[in-house]
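Input set for joint prediction.
Command: fold jointly, output tokens.
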Amino acid sequence: EVQLVESGGGLVQPGGSLRLSCAASGFTFSSYEMNWVRQAPGRGLEWISYISDSGGTIYYADSVKGRFTISRDNAKNSLYLQMNSLRAEDTALYYCANRGLGARPGYFGYWGQGTLVTVSS
Amino acid sequence: EIVLTQSPATLSLSPGERATLSCRASQSVSSYLAWYQQKPGQAPRLLIYDASNRATGIPARFSGSGSGTDFTLTISSLEPEDFAIYYCQQRSNWPPLTFGGGTRVEIK
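tokens >
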């Protein structure tokens, strides 16, 4: 069974930093690209970052570019999101996700349960 | 950036009725469009990818159609568990990957 389990969320002050993790199991992690998608409370979905299976290709949404860094450790089956210079508008539930079976890269067939990040003083 | 506009914002229907949800793209996305269902407190679930392909385990009452800029998700006969929020998403021209604002399907 595929599992994606996020952790590392919490309450942080504006300007602070946080590192999210996503532990993957049930599939060959090193063969799949991964993404972070977030959802502000009561709002819609926003894709924020992508990393290829090898880590050699990385993309960011403009809203987080220069502040967030995505990375992965294929030996540990883990995905990370380093978030710096956090703002109130970064408050959201953060999901890790990948395409799942059968779908193309850029779709999200598997999702974790999310980890909540709250940026507030 | 491709903007996806979903309509209506809210659809009020009764179980057993047919639901028709729309998603319009600001420029052509070919057939590279997906639909997701999200229930309160849950992660989104992929329903349809490449405009018309049902994801694994998705019931046949869900169908997708369209290409270019206009897409439709149809639920042929609403079951009680289908009342949720639905999002469209494109992967045609990325980054960024973008989502529509969502359509809430509520019980009338």
